[in-house]
Amino acid sequence: MPITFIKHSEQYAKEIARLTSDPLVKDALGLSDEETSLAGTKKFIRYVQRQEAIQAQYSRVIFNDRHQLIGVITLKAIDAHDKTAHIGTWIGSAFWGLGYNEEAKEKILHIAFSELGLRRVFAGATVSNIRSQKAQQKLPYMTINVGHIYPAELKRIKDETNSDCILNVVLKEDFLHYYETKTLKRRAL
User: How crowded is the C-beta side of 29, counted as CA atoms within 13 Å?
Assistant: First the structure.
């Protein structure tokens, strides 16, 4: 099920607003009614475009192989000096359980480490977002529960969400080893 990443554009605002207005997505992301409105979504898209212009973010709209908009994935808080970022992903609830989250993460992490030169990508989840925690725990390249090693990064996501959070990290060497092994296995088939 190949996915495609497309740069943000206001032409996608209506569909993004529709998908994020779903209570399952909205509540998991902690979004307000204003943030999931069409106006709020357009404001978000303009924010993403400004952040990308200063290289503080790399965010893409995710489309499936049927050309359906299914979600958004973002590398945010990119720190060029420390070579770190935080990853955020949401997938519309109609597309949950189909492998899109894992595929999108693999694709953007490959970009993060191979093109953007990052060394660590942090992934967090609120303590109440069990679905996100379980999705992260399933990823073989993810190091789980590292808040005690990176307290400043844990504080960043706690402050952003106003919630207790768990912090995980993907290290460049772990991901690239996983990715190369997976690629070799595919070629062997």
Answer: 23
Alpha helices by DSSP H, listed for 128-171, are 130-137, 151-161
Counted residue by residue, the chain has a size of 189
The stretch 55-68 carries a mean pLDDT of 97
Fold classified for 4-188: Aminopeptidase (3.40.630)
| CA–CA gap between residue 47 and residue 41 (Å, rounded) | 10
Q: How far is CA 18 from the centre of its chain?
A: 19
Cα–Cα distance for residue pair 6/139, rounded to 1 Å = 24
Q: Output the pLDDT for position 155.
A: 95
Measured CA angle at 96 (ends 51, 92), to 5 deg: 45
pTM across the whole model:
0.92
Task: Give the start-to-end residue ranges of the domains of the chain.
Answer: 4-188
